[in-house]
Amino acid sequence: MNSTNSMDPTYRLGIDLGGTKIEAILLDPDGRSLLRERMATPRDPDGPAEYEKIRDAVHALTRSTLDKVPNGQGCTIGIGIPGTINDRSGRVQNANTTGLIGHPFQADLERLLGRPIAMENDANCFTLAEARDGAAKGYHLVFGIILGTGCGGGISIGGHIHTGRHRIGGEWGHFAVDPAGMRCYCGNRGCVETKISGGGVARSFFEHTGRRLTLEQITDGYRQGDAACTTAFEQFLDDFGRCLGGLISILDPDAVVLGGGVSNIDELYTLGLKQVRRYAFHERVETPILKHRLGDSAGVIGAAWIGK
């Protein structure tokens, strides 16, 4: 094989860095998965070396996966992270894995690997994967939402991530919708994340009732007729409709796809959809609200597709 062909990016390596696990995938030139590996994310929240441990673990997993690429074949590398890269400083910001914040994660890995890599927010990777190969395949403008402990979003246009001027495109979770709402870790009050994420709903429920329940438990209580759970769950559905209805009024996407643990609540696609239609600025909203198809594979698959 000549040198030009050996540099062609025929294989794609993706890394999904999460709070509990780091996952790698290797795709062949046809987009088929050749291998997947997982390892626990090193955690030391109170220790100064947490960043170095995570960096070294991602580097080691990337190296070991690159070793599986057939000899002489080119390979792109993409990494999804639970945060964003500041467009000016090149350092991580707004990361749920706080040990990454303030560090030049992308530059450090490029130095260790001796080659360029792509790095994007994990919600962007999720959105891209679901738009290319998942529930939203065939739709041009897709807004992807990860609803879990927090709330993330991403935008795919024509099968490509739209990051925006400041690389914050899709950061819908930190749009403030309630000035009198709970304080968010970002510094604002009443962000979308405080209203409809699993963590936000659980926190609000505790403040109002003194009971520590997860959103899953609140949902079960609603289904069983618990009065406090019913009040909280109905408020959650109303907030979901208000937040997503407003988003649709601004972006008017061809489809919205939901991921994360909260996306498994069936009522979102029935009662929640009614609330979305109530709040969106159109008399007959037809935007499909889709449940993810790729599951927890979406993030790592999307990371592989952003690679360079």
Query: What does the average pLDDT come to?
Result: 92
Low-confidence spans: pLDDT under 50, at least 5 residues?
Answer: 1-7
Tally the helices: 10
What is the general shape? globular
Structural class: alpha/beta
Helix content: 25-40%
Order of the strands making up the biggest sheet: 3-2-1-4-7
Number of strands: 12
Secondary-structure element order, as H and E?
Answer: HEEEHEEEHEHEEEHHHHEHEH
Radius of gyration (Å): 20 Å
Distance between the termini: 21 Å
Query: How much β-strand is present in the residues?
Result: 15-25%
Described by strand count, sense and barrel closure, the largest sheet is: 5 strands, mixed
Describe the structure.
There is one protein chain. The protein is an alpha/beta fold and 308 residues long. The chain has helices at residues 3-6, 50-66, 105-113, 122-133, 192-196, 198-209, 215-223, 227-251, 271-279, 298-306; strands spanning 11-17, 21-27, 33-40, 75-81, 84-85, 92-93, 118-121, 141-147, 151-157, 160-161, 255-259, 289-291. Strand 2 and strand 3 (33-40) form a beta hairpin. It is globular. The model is unreliable at 1-7 (pLDDT under 50).
Topology:
Elements: H1 3-6, E1 11-17, E2 21-27, E3 33-40, H2 50-66, E4 75-81, E5 84-85, E6 92-93, H3 105-113, E7 118-121, H4 122-133, E8 141-147, E9 151-157, E10 160-161, H5 192-196, H6 198-209, H7 215-223, H8 227-251, E11 255-259, H9 271-279, E12 289-291, H10 298-306
Helix pairs in contact: 2-3, 4-10, 6-8, 7-8, 8-9
